Amino acid sequence: MLGCGVQVSAAAGGGAGGLTSEERADLAARHRFDPLPEGYTYDGYRYYDAFGDASPTHPCMPEFVARFVAERAQAAHEAEEQRRAAQQAAAPRSVHVTALAAAPLSAF
Prior knowledge:
The chain is mostly helical. The protein has one domain. The protein has a three-stranded antiparallel β-sheet, with no helix packed on it.
């Protein structure tokens, strides 16, 4: 059995407010048969810990949520960087002219 590999912190955005109910259901379906931490079993309907306590969600669901939210935030950040780069590339460039040194009149 495996332990959940991702540690969740409050700053990771792994709270329930980070996902829609559809996203949460999709994550649950995608990770339904993922390896369980030591001491957990799954009967196809509920997850049970070593003490017999049942849960409808995978014991690593907080980590799955945190990873999903972090990946979504990273994708949004990259999209914003690309948008800014494209905007800067399309912006007209201004040219600054400095004063030119005048040639001495005696040279003509």
